[in-house]
Amino acid sequence: MKHNKLLTLSLLASFLILVSASFSFAQSVTYGTVSVCPQPAGNNVYIPVNVENGADLAALDIVGQVVTTDGALTAVVTDVTFEDRLGLADILDLRYGLSFCAGGEFRFGAVKLTGTDLAAGSGQIATLELEFTSECELGTVSVGEATADCGVQLGISTAFVGSDATPITPTVVAGAINMVNANPSITVCPTEGFEIYWNGGSVNTTIEATDADLACGCDELSFDVTEGPGDITDEGVYTFFSTSSDIGCQDVEITVSDLYGGTAICSFQISVLNMPPEFTVCPAFVHGVWDMEFSYALDAEDPDGGPSGLTYDVLDFDGPGNFDVDAVSGEVTWTIEMLEEYLGDFTASIVVTDGAPLDACNLLNADTCTFDIHVSGFYVTIQKHEGDATTDYMGVLQGHEYDLSVYLDEMFLGNEYLSDHIGGFDLLFAYDASALTLLGAEAGDLLVANDWEYFTYRFGPFGNCTNGCPSGEVRIVAMAETNDGVAHPDPIETPGELAKLTFFITNDRTFECQYAPVQFFWYDCGDNTFSSYDGSFLFVGDKVATFEHILLDPATTEWGYYGTEEECYNTLILDPEGTLKNYPLNAICFANGGFDIICADDIDDPGDINQNGIAYEIADAVMFTNYFVNGLSAFDDHAEASIAASDCNQDGYTLSVADLVYLIRVITGDALPYAKLNHGDETLVVTSQVLNGTMNIGVDREAGATLLVFSVDGSVGEVSLANDNSGMEVLTSLNDNELRVLVYNIGRTAIQAGNLVTLPVNGNVELVSVEAADYEGNSLGVTLTALPTEFDLGQNYPNPFNPKTNIALSLPVASDYSVAIYNVAGQLVWNETGYAQAGTKVVEWFGTDMNGNQVASGVYFYKATASQFSATKKMILMK
């Protein structure tokens, strides 16, 4: 057999020398490729050897090599097994096994001696056994064509011999053994997370993982906490013990790693909770009264005692003034002033926190106490009579009778708390008897509408008056109920007229242009008081105001014109339960009134004797002539106006023959009428703005001239007229830190609405005052407005808020603007867009989305854009 093998191989070698023949059919040897996990040295792996031959073969000789191509993996061929296409004994019946050469080369083959050819076709002819010589390494071993001579005699490579003894050189396709790592995978990981409390809460759970490589004996797994708190053992047991610093959402990430760099992640969340504080004293309603210091002590408890002490804060208050809460004690205080804006029902919200953070896992780390404050009080007002509203002039005429009303204004008491409102009153008035004569008094419309049963008045007060007593006094007493039968009138529950006083205005011309006051007056605690309907409460007042509701500053504490003395009421009005006690309540502000006696100039319309609106007509001359014959009766019911109009020659004397002569001259065209001066009552709005180092001054209407006064802390350049007013003239004077600028024109040019002047500025320059007149020479009132100098986005107020907050956007120029609200996920919640003039644009957000639905408590971001400006700030909605 050995001889035959050698003979055959010799023949095969000689055939291989003949390379002139070529074949068009496929001839190849293909080594298989397998992938396995990391394994220890000595383990075996098997690679199939496939042959594709387009012609029948009488012999084949396969020479290969094992080469490490990637990593540190090494292996050697240890055996070959013939199978599949060489499985029958008579097919290429001489098969020779492995032989080896240096460099990892190997050789095996088969030759037909007496057997059958290997028929044309393709398929597996053998299996190579390889043994790992490296320990648990990753990499690739290539099995392919030999790259060096194998054997010292033949110097051959892989070859086929056809059945007709034709030599064939096949293509060799390499195979490989890939030692690869499989990543671990998590088999047990918490899916719903954990909720624990910070003071003693803990988590203990096991994370489980697997890896397909573990069965091969080289790999192993390890566990690590790569994000968040807690510890984990090599066996995957995770533990966490919470403290106060952990309150909130704790994201935990566990990483499982193998020896070859493969990883798997287990993620879950631990919600470390805090038990929020709770109000234990929180009223639904408390009562306050005008001109009182309101105080109420709230209280709260913290179930888990931390993480820090309780802190109280004002979350929202819809009333005026200084409303506050002590951050430590929880005592609420509010100074209730005797002003109209303090009157009514107000809602306050106080929040108590324990120092725990507010996030998605702790939305309720606070408690809110919301309660209503009902403020009692009302104005009692004497009318300020300014004459007949149907005439062009303001004021009452002398020598006439007028009614003067007394009103109950801005009343707000509340049925449930103050015994069904007002059931009686006692009022004392003082007036100057030399200017006014009281003719009588009667019940007002409010009393008549409610069927009050008793009303009376008398001249002079009860009591005594020392020096400085009023020359005229009247007292009015009224009651709803006199217990005289089954009829029971209604109490007063709404504002309205209480009484009507009728006065005669003196004809003494020394009172012309005077104000004749009618005022409240006090002798003792019973003067100017009101009673509740059942008599439980007496209302008094120590505040007296002018007819403009400007409070008087009393010059003395003695009785007189300045209200009730402090001895008449008690400053403590609530018992421990917050209920009113039955003693005088200081809940009234009195507003004085009186009569404006008209000035002759106010009804002066020269030449319009008959007061028909047409001056210097023949009818005026006829009526004026009748006066000289018949006296004042010639003027019917407009004597005062006709007397003032008779000064036709404007010499200051009325009802003179000279006036009649001049009137006739004007009618006949021989003279011109004197014009009556108009006293201006218009207002000029002046705006100032500094942009890019230039101050711009603008006006909103036409004017004759303006004097601008600036305060200068720095320097200013030359004052220039704007294009809108280039026809005007300008004079300037700078003394110390004051710049004065006069804009005027000697001719007939007027200041036009728009831009007025500009001036370069450096430092702090401010427009402090303006004096202006119209084109007719009448003085103009002036309103100064400073426009923003740059775009800016203010912090919303209030913040935190519920349910409304204001967002202020400063616009130095007219601009399109947008204000958008986003949640913490970056989603748009609400927005407003529009166009606004230069100034401050205030946007209100009521805590709703675009559909008007209330959004949840939490942190929100608001972004404002205008022109090239953009800014974003944070705010908190807390319910």
Write up this protein.
- The structure is a single chain.
- It contains five helices and 60 strands.
- The longest helix is centred in the N-terminal third of the chain and has 16 residues, at 2-17.
- Strand 28 and strand 29 form a beta hairpin.
- The protein is elongated and about 170 Å long.
- Helices cover 6% and strands 46% of the residues.
- It folds into seven domains: 2-179, Immunoglobulin-like, CATH 2.60.40.680; 185-273, Immunoglobulin-like; 289-375, Cadherins (Immunoglobulin-like); 383-596, Immunoglobulin-like, CATH 2.60.40.680; 604-668, Type 1 dockerin domain, CATH 1.10.1330.10; 683-786, Immunoglobulin-like (Sandwich), CATH 2.60.40; 792-877, Sandwich (Immunoglobulin-like), CATH 2.60.40.
- Strands 24, 27, 30, 31, 33, 35, 38, 42 and 44 form a nine-stranded mixed sheet that branches. Strands 32, 34, 36, 37, 39, 40, 41, 43 and 45 form a nine-stranded mixed sheet that branches.
- It has 879 residues and is mainly beta.
Structure, briefly:
By secondary structure, this protein is mainly beta. The strands form twelve sheets. Strands 24, 27, 30, 31, 33, 35, 38, 42 and 44 form a nine-stranded mixed sheet that branches. Strands 32, 34, 36, 37, 39, 40, 41, 43 and 45 form a nine-stranded mixed sheet that branches. Helix 3 packs antiparallel against helix 5.
**Structural class estimated from helices and strands:** mainly beta
Q: How would you describe the oligomerization state of the chains in this entry? A: single chain
Low-confidence stretches: 1-24, 571-578
CATH topology call of the largest domain: Immunoglobulin-like
Going by CATH, the architecture of the largest domain would be Sandwich
The rough form would be described as: elongated
Radius of gyration: 54 Å
Major β-sheet, in short? 9 strands, mixed
CATH classification class of the largest domain:
Mainly Beta
* Residues in helices, as a percent range: under 10%
The average pLDDT score comes to 84
